[in-house]
Amino acid sequence: MAYRCTDPSKKGKRLYEVHCANCHGEEGQGLAQLYPPLANSDYLEAHATELPCIILNGIEGEILVNGVSYNQQMLGHPELSDAQIANITNYVVRQWVPSRPAPTPKDLKAWADGCN
Ligand code: HEC
Fold first, then answer.
1. Distances from the Cα of 65 to the Cαs of 7, 21, 28, 61, 107, in angstroms?
2. Average pLDDT of 99-110?
3. Is the beta carbon of 93 within 6 A of some atom in ligand 1?
4. Burial code of 78-97, b = ≥16 C-beta within 10 A, e = fewer?
5. How many CB atoms lie within 10 A of CB 53?
6. Pocket of ligand 1, candidates 59, 66, 69, 91: which has the most ligand atoms within 8 Å of its Cβ, to mutate?
7. Is residue 56 lining ligand 1, measured as CB closer than 6 Å?
8. CB atoms < 10 A from the CB of 3, how many?
9. Nearest to 59 by CA among 41, 45, 44
């Protein structure tokens, strides 16, 4: 738990707990067939650069996460600022996508710019 004060992923953690954890779980574990996991999700690993857009716009339709099919709807979070979305993205990728390097501020901006 040695987060430095300057670590933006600490803000991301707090925002995640408020805006995401009630569905995806504190540990990113998901909930049965309703809410897919984020922790070690092969879907998230393959679509990490789309995470800011998923947070902003939501996602619906059938997706396959670690071999389990989900066909639900996640609403977008237009109430979140660009900075908040960047902080959540940073936290989620660092926490649960160990195969990817931690996103840089430049990455986060490019990923967010890619979605409209
Ligand atoms: C009200 C419940 C709910 C909330 C809150 C929510 N999600 Fe989701 N999320 C879902 C559902 C349901 C799906 C599956 C959508 C589908 O079936 O297409 C999903 C899918 C996803 C996926 C793609 C699948 C995967 O598991 O890799 C990601 C990434 C994701 N959510 C991230 C987030 C983040 C980050 C937040 C917080 C900003 C968030 N979600 C908030 C319900 C929620």
1. 29, 18, 13, 13, 24
2. 95
3. no
4. eebeeebbbbbbbbbbbbbb
5. 19
6. 59
7. no
8. 11
9. 44
* 9 token code pair: 């992923």
Q: Residue 75 corresponds to which tokens in the numbers above?
A: 């609403």
pLDDT in tens, 43-88: 999 999 999 999 999 999 999 999 999 999 999 999 999 999 999 9
Residue from 17, 24, 26 whose mutation best tests the ligand 1 pocket (most atoms within 8 A of CB): 24
The two tokens of residue 30 are: 């998901």
Distance 60 CA to ligand 1 centre (A): 9
Residue owning tokens 């195969």: 99
Give CA–CA dist 11/1, Å, rounded. 14
